[in-house]
Amino acid sequence: MSFNLSLLPPNEKNKIELDKQASFLVWKLKEAKCGPEAIQEQLSMINDADEKVVFQQSVEKYKRVMGVA
User: Fold this and answer.
1) Which tens digits make up the pLDDT trace of 1-22?
2) In angstroms, rounded to a whole number, what is the distance separating the alpha carbons of residues 28 and 32?
3) What Pfam families does the record point to (predicted)?
4) How far apart are CA 50 and CA 69, in angstroms?
């Protein structure tokens, strides 16, 4: 079964993008390519409160999955 992500509403597309960004930043953190300040920088650039929550939840999810403290 395939899904056409372009058909999603804009807020759902943005949640997917935030999740991808969180995954990439946690990977970079794990690989010592950045420090925890990179996550805080990204978080400070998000203006919407709901989007901040989504991003923070994704960061925590990927930290658990990737075994990052």
Assistant:
1) 788 989 999 999 999 999 999 9
2) 6
3) DUF3283
4) 24
